[in-house]
Amino acid sequence: MLTLTSPVETRLHRLPAGLKLALLALAAIGLALLPLGGLVLAAAAVVALYLAQGTVFAAHGLRMLRPLWPFLLVLLVWHVFTADLPRGLEVALRLLTAVALANLVTMTTRLEDLISVVERLAAPLARFGLSPRVLAVSIALVIRFVPVFLLRVNQLAEAWRARSRGRANWRIVVPVALTALDDADHVAEALRARGGL
C-alpha cells in the first residue's frame, strides 16, 4: 500500500486530526456556498497554503491532483456541449479546490490518526449494530487503495502501450478488475490473519 502522508514535515502535521477534519468539513460546505468571486479567493488561499509549506510539499500536492484531471476534462467538455462553459469552470474550480483541501488533510495527517477520529465519530452507530472499527478501517482502506488502484491502471496502460501502437482504452478493464480483486483478496487474508475486525 502507498502512504499519502507527505514526508516533508510541516506545521500542519502538528495540528490534531479531528481539528483538520472539522475544518475540512466546514471548508467544503463553504466552498459549495461561495459566489464565484469568493471561490476564486478561496482557491488562491489554498494555493498559498500549499506554498507556505514549501515548494517540495506544494509540488507533491500538485502531483496528487493529477488523477482528478480526466474528471475535470469530462466536466468541462460536458459544459461546452451544454453551452454553459462559465458554469463548468466554476464547478471544476469548486471540485479542484475541495479535493486539494482534502489532499492537504491526508498529506499532513497520519492514517492511524484519521482512523481514530472516524472511530470516535462513528461510536454512536454502535447502538444500531454498526461497528465503528469496521467503518474506520473501511474508510482507511479506501484512502490507501485509491492511489494503488490508479497506479495499477497506469502500469497496465503503460504495458499496453509498450506492446501496441493503439491506446489501451477498454482493453485493460478486465486486467484492472482482476488485479483489484486480487488485491482485495490479499487484504482480506491479512485481516483474517490478524483476527479480523
Secondary-structure map with pairings?
Layout: H1 17-33, H2 36-52, H3 55-64, H4 69-81, H5 85-107, H6 111-121, H7 132-163, H8 173-193
Helix pairs in contact: 1-5, 2-3, 2-5, 4-5, 6-7, 7-8
SS elements, strand count: 0
How many separate domains make up the residues? 2
Which range best describes the helical content: under 10%, 10-25%, 25-40%, 40-55%, 55-70% or over 70%?
Answer: over 70%
Helices, by number, come to 8
In whole angstroms, the N-to-C terminal distance is: 19 Å
Based on secondary structure, the structural category is mainly alpha
Largest sheet: none
Rg computed from alpha carbons, rounded to a whole number of angstroms: 19 Å
Strand content: under 5%
Q: Runs with pLDDT <50, length 5+?
A: none
The average pLDDT is 88
Encode the helix/strand succession as letters: HHHHHHHH
Shape: globular
Keywords: Membrane, Transmembrane, Transmembrane helix
Protein name: ABC transporter permease
Subcellular location: Membrane
Membrane topology: Multi-pass membrane protein
Summarize the structure.
It is a multi-pass membrane protein. The chain crosses the membrane at residues 21-52, 64-81, 131-151. By secondary structure, this protein is mainly alpha-helical.
Features:
8 helices; mainly alpha; 197 residues; 2 domains; 73% helix; single chain; transmembrane
